[in-house]
Write a structure and sequence with these properties.
Belongs to the peptidase S33 family. By secondary structure, this protein is α/β, with parallel strands linked by helices. Helix content is 34%, strand content 15%. The protein has ten helices and seven strands. The protein starts with a strand and ends with a helix.
Length: 300
Amino acid sequence: MVLLGFVSNITITSRTSSLPHTSTLSRLRFLPSSHQNFTLAGRKDLVIRAQNFGVKSEPKLIDMMESGKELPELNTNLYPYVEPYSTGILKVSDIHTIYWEQSGNPTGHPVVFLHGGPGGGTTPSNRRFFDPDFYRIILFDQRGAGKSTPHACLDQNTTWDLIDDIEKLRQHLEIPEWQVFGGSWGSTLALAYSLAHPDKVTGLVLRGIFLLRKKEIDWFYEGGAAAIYPDAWESFRDLIPENERSCFVDAYSKRLNSDDKETQYAAARAWTKWEMMTAHLLPNEENIKRGEDDIFSLVT
């Protein structure tokens, strides 16, 4: 197994010489975190700088004030949309089934995409990270997420259950070994799977790495990320009374596990909105709208 790299300032290498067919956004380097203005306008300035990274000619300023323009302009480095050539449902336990799909080149180099969350599920845009002429692209929804059933079920739904599911899917699709691509929570799952089955992994690509360590959770949910996304933080914070703000994770946990459905859904929507608004440097209206759905927000 070879670590192909991290999607930000990476040089992708592997034992398969032609594997660097991932999106060209992998060539971007980190921008300084000490930028003077982390309001929405400041974040737009960072994106313009990133888009012009390595360009020797006069930088081309892009009008990104209209939210409708942001999505296509940010996705110019991704591959075109492709449709699956096969889909299926795999029973992985007494109560759980997982949805899977394949797209791209049926005889290409197999790569499995591990989504975030936990509970985020996959979307058609996830296929766009990969060159469809080169890769056999496998996406699946983890237990309780997306099209997998039962929806939002936490029974028999541990990290180790998910690792077993990845291996069961590899065997079901008769793939000897594959590349593993994970983002956010998916990066944790990718690392755990590769440690459990190193002989089945040709390489790893990890993006948006989030290992669920306490210091990461504290930074993201207890005010650290608020310095970068102050506009998004307000609605996340304001749902919780001031006397409970010493620990937002506990305050939200109490509401998400409430017997009152409306309390549950209100907390789920606020929690998911915060995650969707901070998933990109600029607002991604598609993600934000997705997070407004009660069924989706409850599982994430």
